[in-house]
């Protein structure tokens, strides 16, 4: 790429457009950048752009992020993108270091992205393919007195050394030794040198001159953490006193520059992380310093109100001490009491920042509070400290905290308007200290009697008619209900559901989010035995008020894309018996929401639950009452067509899955609108977007099931086979190709497919010659098994041998027999076992005397398959979709749980493949008495002979 001024101007304009809220210009710019990324010199052009001070900061930051992502995808060779050339990579490496060392050339955000970029490059090239990097950093570190430049060097070192925190292999240890040999001593030198400068600076020193010194020490501490993470290096062990002396000084010294307090606190937090690392990994070496540091950290927490990050790291260090062999440091009542009352409770009590987040940033508040992502908040880590101490002093801690909770409730009762934070703190402590099991679905507490606390404290808040008074407490009550839902009796929960529905109408985002989450979680509660506690009949009386309340909650400011509300809608529509009268209004409401989010898809989790809700409604309503299909089509078709024509790529995978559902619930013959889509589906161009291929396969299989006779027309069957060939030539899609072919075999008669069988086998065997991966071979065995049970063993053998004489026996010995035992999934296990049994009992080709050895090996493999424990062969299917972080902003395939098609058993008449095997063998042996026991004795290993004998005994069969 020619890095001219015009090129840089074009790139600058494109990056501005990528920040546009308007989807049109944004997609156009993204498309240009995606194409430009293939051009030589593109990465260097990005570096030129992001390093130019005259370019606006938003453009420089956007180009820096793009540059980092470009390195991530193209620095090393991959199947998806051409790699950056070697010459260009060398230039990039030299420029990266130079830009990082010149701290004045760019903003902190750009510096941060450059640092991550260097880390990405270092992960691949350092040190073996970048030997000049470490000497260059060390030389610059020793020669410079300019602290912004020194911090650039340390930032670069911090980035490349972070890899030592992730994995521990021989190669990583070799690289670590190289870094320790070259950097450990210079690191300590600069750390001590900077400490002296800080100590010599007086109150008159300008804060802006001192601030870089503290930032330098923080970076040194982060590098210390990386270099010490895998093992305690000899150099650091020898110089532990110097490091620990400085660490303690930073925790105990009061500095005279208030304006740089945040930087000092960041340094102290880094120190506490280092102490935690030594406490966790090198306790024996650290023990001489432990008592002093525990005291220093304790005093730091008690004497001040440190910011969140420092409080979290400091409390985490104390937590590690509390769970170690040195827990006796906390054994005294004089220590236990102050820790509970002076550290835990103050850090759990809601602060002004928490209230602001509750009011103005409900997404982050809920994410921390309910979803468990608050592990790094002071509230949560304070409770972790309490749990740590309680591990050895449970009775003492229980007595202290229970008394604290009762005192808080008493204070609240005395003056609710003023002391509502006491109630909030009490509920938070009970919830945070709950014992959870079963993935958090079941919780209990030994601090309080859960049901009694619920009825005494929580229920009045849920039933309060003035719901807008202190909404934080309504949220707390709902959270308690969510966490302890399994402990609340069914009749109590049902009686409170109308109150929870009423709270959906509160404008406060956290409250109606929690109300929606509470309803959604209650519908998943299971009793012993795994049965759902609540039934559709239980929620039926609530539907006329519940569904409108959920839709109305989406109209509140900032809740138009509230994922908790949409998840509840999805759950209710997938759970309840939604009548025709309600179904029509539901699909209309969902379509309106979908039409709106199509304009600018922003929240991928919300969007996923939205499509899940549509799929659930189709599944529950259309499949039960075909009369509503036309109503759904009238609402959905316009917006689904808009998604395709307006190229809303994020929604294409979902759209094709919804279309598959509509095809399946539609009575044949399919109308012209569906057949037009079928024609588009068979076009080669349609299959060029990898992210939509799984959804296209889902849709194509729906057409094959619903309208197999249509394949006779206009060369459609050949085009389906061409799609199959396209998919099996890639390891990423080969299983999808076999899904199509399996569906074809299941739904087409032999009269339609016989003329194509040779072509199909040829395509498979051509791929098999160069690709014998286990996944491909397993898919082939399943396909051959389905072919056999559908058309018979003779047709299978003859059609394969028509490609090449006697090739079937080679396929059998090289692939089917050795891999049969690895088949998993109940349906596949049953299918392949029965097909293999029919092959040895019904196929003339296998019953020939010359095939005795192969026959015996095949039976040995069948017995191995059938004898495997159930847990080894059955793949569990999740009952509910687990969305969360798996959904990203890119156009990727995410399966819609509610749009899934339950695979039908092609062998419904056979209940037990074990019984089928021994009965088939018994029948076979009657025609040739004495022949098969001898083959079994010679061919099956002893363990499998015993397993077969046990099966014969269990089913009262004899092989004669």
TrEMBL record:
Query: Which key words tag this protein in UniProt?
Result: Cytoplasm, Nucleus, Protein transport, Transport
Q: Name one GO cellular component term.
A: nuclear envelope
Q: Which GO terms describe its molecular function?
A: nuclear export signal receptor activity; small GTPase binding
Q: Can you say where in the cell this protein is located?
A: Cytoplasm; Nucleus
Q: What SUPFAM superfamilies does the record tag this protein with?
A: ARM repeat
**Protein's GO biological process:** protein export from nucleus; protein import into nucleus
Cited InterPro entries = ARM-like (IPR011989), ARM-type_fold (IPR016024), Importin-beta_N (IPR001494), XPO2_C (IPR005043), XPO2_central (IPR013713)
Q: Which PROSITE patterns match?
A: IMPORTIN_B_NT
Its chief place of residence is: cytoplasm
Q: Which Pfam families match?
A: CAS_CSE1 (PF03378), Cse1 (PF08506), IBN_N (PF03810)
Describe the location of the Importin N-terminal domain by residue ranges. Answer: 29-102
The family classification in the record reads: Belongs to the XPO2/CSE1 family.
The identity of this protein, by name, is Exportin-2
* Species: Acorus calamus (Sweet flag)
């Amino acid at each position: 790429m020619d890095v001219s001024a015009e090129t840089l101007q074009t790139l600058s304009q494109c990056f501005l457009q990528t920040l546009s809220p308007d989807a049109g210009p944004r997609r156009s710019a993204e498309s240009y950048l995606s194409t430009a990324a293939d051009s030589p010199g593109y990465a260097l052009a990005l570096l030129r752009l992001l390093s130019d001070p005259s370019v606006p900061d938003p453009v420089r930051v956007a180009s820096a992020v793009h540059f980092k992502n470009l390195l991530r995808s193209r620095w090393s060779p991959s199947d998806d993108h051409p790699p950056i050339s070697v010459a260009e990579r060398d230039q990039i490496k030299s420029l990266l270091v130079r830009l990082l060392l010149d701290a004045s050339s760019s903003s902190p955000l750009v510096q941060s992205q450059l640092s991550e970029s260097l880390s990405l490059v270092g992960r691949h090239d350092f040190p073996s393919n970048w030997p000049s990097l470490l000497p260059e950093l060390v030389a610059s570190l020793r020669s410079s007195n300019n602290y912004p430049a020194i911090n650039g060097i340390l930032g670069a070192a911090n980035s490349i050394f972070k890899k030592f925190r992730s994995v521990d292999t021989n190669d990583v240890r070799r690289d670590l030794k190289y870094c320790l040999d070259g950097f450990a001593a210079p690191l300590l030198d600069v750390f001590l040198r900077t400490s002296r400068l800080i100590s010599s600076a007086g109150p008159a020193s300008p804060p802006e001159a001192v601030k870089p010194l503290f930032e330098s020490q923080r970076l040194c501490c982060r590098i210390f953490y990386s270099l010490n993470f895998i093992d305690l290096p000899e150099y650091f062990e020898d110089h532990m006193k110097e490091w620990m002396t400085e660490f303690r000084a930073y925790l105990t010294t009061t500095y005279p520059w208030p304006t740089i307090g945040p930087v000092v606190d960041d340094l102290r937090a880094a120190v506490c992380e280092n102490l935690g690392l030594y406490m966790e990994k090198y306790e024996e070496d650290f023990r001489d310093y432990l008592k002093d540091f525990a005291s220093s950290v304790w005093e730091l927490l008690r004497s001040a109100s440190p910011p969140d990050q420092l409080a979290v790291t400091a409390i985490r260090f104390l937590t590690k001490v509390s769970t170690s062999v040195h827990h006796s440091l906390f054994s005294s009542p004089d220590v236990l009491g102050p820790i509970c009352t002076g550290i835990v409770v103050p850090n759990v009590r809601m602060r002004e920042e928490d209230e602001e987040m509750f009011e103005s940033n409900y997404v982050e508040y809920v994410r921390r509070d309910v979803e468990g992502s608050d592990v790094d908040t002071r509230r949560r880590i304070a409770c972790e400290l309490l749990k740590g101490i309680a591990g050895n002093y449970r009775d003492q801690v229980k007595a202290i905290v229970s008394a604290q909770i009762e005192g808080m409730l008493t204070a609240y009762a005395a003056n609710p308007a003023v002391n509502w934070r006491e109630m909030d703190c009490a509920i938070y402590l009970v919830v945070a200290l709950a014992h959870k099991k079963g993935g958090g679905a079941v919780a209990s507490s030994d601090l309080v009697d859960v049901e009694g606390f619920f009825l005494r404290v929580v229920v009045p808040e849920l039933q309060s008619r003035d719901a807008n008074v202190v909404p934080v407490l309504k949220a707390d009550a709902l959270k308690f209900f969510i966490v302890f839902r399994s402990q609340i009796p069914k009749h109590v929960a049902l009686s409170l559901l109308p109150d929870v529905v009423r709270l959906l109408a509160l404008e406060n985002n956290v409250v109606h989010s929690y109300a929606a989450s509470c309803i959604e979680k209650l519908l998943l509660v299971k009793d012993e035995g795994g049965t759902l506690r609540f039934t559709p009949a239980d929620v039926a009386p609530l539907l006329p008020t519940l569904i409108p309340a959920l839709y109305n909650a989406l109209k509140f400011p900032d809740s138009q894309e509230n994922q908790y509300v949409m998840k509840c809608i999805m759950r209710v529509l997938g759970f309840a018996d939604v009548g025709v009268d309600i179904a029509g209004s539901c699909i209309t409401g969902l379509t309106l929401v979908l039409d709106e989010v199509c304009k600018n898809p922003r929240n991928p989790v919300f969007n996923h639950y939205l499509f899940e809700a549509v799929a659930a409604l189709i599944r529950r309503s259309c499949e039960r009452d075909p009369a509503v299909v036309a109503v759904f089509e009238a609402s959905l078709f316009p917006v689904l067509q808009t998604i395709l024509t307006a190229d809303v790529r994020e929604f294409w995978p979902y759209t094709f899955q919804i279309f598959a559902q509509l095809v399946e619930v539609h009575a044949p013959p399919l109308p012209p609108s569906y057949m037009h889509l079928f024609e588009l589906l068979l076009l080669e161009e349609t299959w060029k977007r990898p992210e939509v291929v799984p959804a296209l396969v889902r849709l194509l299989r729906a057409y094959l099931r619903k309208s197999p006779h249509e394949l006779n027309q206009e060369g459609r069957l050949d085009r389906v086979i061409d799609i199959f060939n396209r998919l099996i030539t890639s390891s990423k899609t080969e299983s999808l190709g076999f899904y199509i072919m399996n569906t074809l075999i299941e739904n087409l008669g032999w009269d339609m497919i016989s003329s194509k069988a040779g072509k199909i086998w040829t395509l498979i065997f051509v791929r098999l010659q160069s690709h014998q991966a286990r996944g491909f071979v397993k898919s082939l065995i399943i396909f051959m098994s389905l072919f056999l049970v559908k058309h018979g063993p003779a047709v299978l053998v003859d059609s394969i041998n028509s490609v090449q004489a006697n090739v079937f026996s080679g396929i059998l010995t090289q692939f089917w027999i050795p891999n049969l035992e690895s088949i998993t999934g109940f349906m596949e296990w049953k299918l392949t076992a029965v097909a293999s049994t029919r092959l040895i009992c019904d196929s003339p080709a296998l019953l020939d005397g010359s095939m005795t050895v192969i026959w015996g090996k095949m039976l040995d493999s069948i017995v191995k398959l059938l004898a495997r424990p159930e847990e080894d062969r059955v793949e569990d299917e999740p009952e509910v979709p687990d969305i969360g972080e798996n959904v990203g902003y890119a156009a990727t395939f995410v399966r819609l749980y509610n749009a899934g098609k339950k695979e039908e058993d092609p062998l419904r008449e056979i209940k037990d493949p074990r019984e089928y095997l021994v009965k088939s063998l018994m029948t076979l042996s009657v025609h040739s008495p004495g022949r098969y026991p001898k083959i079994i004795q010679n061919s099956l290993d002893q363990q499998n002979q015993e397993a077969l004998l046990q099966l014969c005994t269990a089913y009262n069969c004899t092989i004669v």
